[in-house]
Amino acid sequence: YTKIAAIYADSEQLGGQTVTVGGWVRTIRDMKTFGFIELNDGSCFKNLQVVMEAGTLANYKDIAAQNVGAALIVTGTVVLTPEAKQPLELKAASIEVEGTSTPDYPLQKKRHSVEFLRTIQHLRPRTNLFSAVFRVRSVAAYAIHQFFQERGFVYVHTPIITASDCEGAGEMFQVTTLDLQNLPKNEDGTVDFSQDFFGKPANLTVSGQLNAENFAMAFGDVYTFGPTFRAENSNTQRHAAEFWMIEPEMAFTDLKGDMDVAEAMIKFVIRQVMAKCPQELAFFNSFVDKGLLERLEHVASSDFGRVTYTEAVEILEKHNDQFDYKVSWGCDLQTEHERYLTEQVYKKPVFVTDYPKEIKAFYMRLNDDGKTVAAADCLVPGIGEIIGGSQREERLDVLEARIKELGMRTEDYWWYCDLRRYGSCKHAGFGLGFERLVMYLTGVSNIRDVLPHPRTVGSADF
Ligand code: 4AD
Ligand code: MG
């Protein structure tokens, strides 16, 4: 079958030719002697207008009685219609019904709320909004691979199941084969994990970073791009229990080099999506976020802001009257502060660097002041944090002291410490939340609407 995308792309050649298309009915209008079907086959955002005539189609009555959602196979002539609203149509010579639909098909031609569409996750990819979101998601994922591959990064598959807690936040989903009704216990009453599948507690990974570091110390520049899991009890528009993360890790690179790569990557992905998804972006710009195109254009062509945490806190403290949670040095920045900085102060993406060590993970490199670490979070308007990154602690003694200080066990990280024993070097990396990037690229404001099948607190259907 010919794809609708190919018909639009090669319309010059295909004008007057006969093609066969398989697709689903978006709308159908019966004017008794003739009728129109808008057909969508998923190959592109646009529908194909099919024109049918009672005089030429033996089964006209049967076709005209089909419901929205039916699957049809249409053979006909491509007719160029330069004066009409759509540049071409398909004049049907024959139409076969592959699969019927019913009048109560949930996706009738009207605007459905995103809340309603979340209840029919199996059908929502057939709507304009979700068709556009998931095509942009696919193009953005490919662009990320392209960005790193063109720069010689090696793609590493990091494990989904792990015994470590990279972020040290304890927000992990445990993986076990033990009978939860009848857990084996040690003498002191704690669970005896020696009888479990892995012989110790295991969990779904919160980040592939530590494994990526192992590979960066062999390949230099690597990245991982895969699902990550957080049992955070945050029921917000930007937290999911299962989300995808892009994590590059680069040897012989400091924090500035890290931010330069992050900034170049985001700009590259924006340009790729603008080049490959113009119809999808025009749709978002009209129906989801009026300023989207202008914003993406601006972000792709201007420098991101860079500010230290200490400077950011000085700026934010002046506006404490506007915040629910008052800012002072040492506090973790909340979404309201992140958004204020990037939306009111910078009006563009901004990296905040050098956070207090107390609010960041164990692996971040301690700065000379002994109080802050070489971290860089990238904040963007409308969302807040989309990237968390840092230069890693490459000094064995400093790392071990930090692990102990946090009450973690150096034995559990013997392999991670080994990297500092054998050819340690300065290195850095970051994690980009892929869904948050897709939200940024589309203007969609809820993470549930950029995940094909969202898993969030209280919801793991489908
Ligand atoms: O800031 P985070 O926790 O950093 C790390 O995991 C580092 N190990 C990354 C690294 O340096 N290799 O998470 C990174 C990003 C966040 O900035 C955010 O975009 C996204 O992952 N993220 C989430 N996205 C959706 N739902 C959640 N629950 C998320 N938690 C983090
Ligand atoms: Mg973070």
From TrEMBL:
The keyword Aminoacyl-tRNA synthetase is annotated on this UniProt entry: yes
Pfam assignment, any one: tRNA-synt_2
Keyword vocabulary terms for this entry: Aminoacyl-tRNA synthetase, ATP-binding, Cytoplasm, Ligase, Nucleotide-binding, Protein biosynthesis
Gene3D superfamilies assigned to the protein according to its UniProt record, in alphabetical order: Bira Bifunctional Protein, Domain 2 (3.30.930.10), Nucleic acid-binding proteins (2.40.50.140)
Main location: cytoplasm
Domain Aminoacyl-transfer RNA synthetases class-II family profile: 134-452
Subcellular location: Cytoplasm
Annotated PROSITE patterns: AA_TRNA_LIGASE_II
Matching InterPro entries: Aa-tRNA-synt_II, aa-tRNA-synth_II, aa-tRNA-synth_II/BPL/LPL, Asn-tRNA-ligase, Asp/Asn-tRNA-synth_IIb, NA-bd_OB-fold, NA-bd_OB_tRNA
Catalytic activity: tRNA(Asn) + L-asparagine + ATP = L-asparaginyl-tRNA(Asn) + AMP + diphosphate + H(+)
Chain segments annotated as transmembrane: none
Keyword Membrane set for record: no
Family assignment from sequence similarity: Belongs to the class-II aminoacyl-tRNA synthetase family.
UniProt name for this protein: Asparagine--tRNA ligase
Origin species: Oscillibacter valericigenes
Phylogenetic classification of the source organism: Bacteria, Bacillati, Bacillota, Clostridia, Eubacteriales
Gene for this chain: asnS
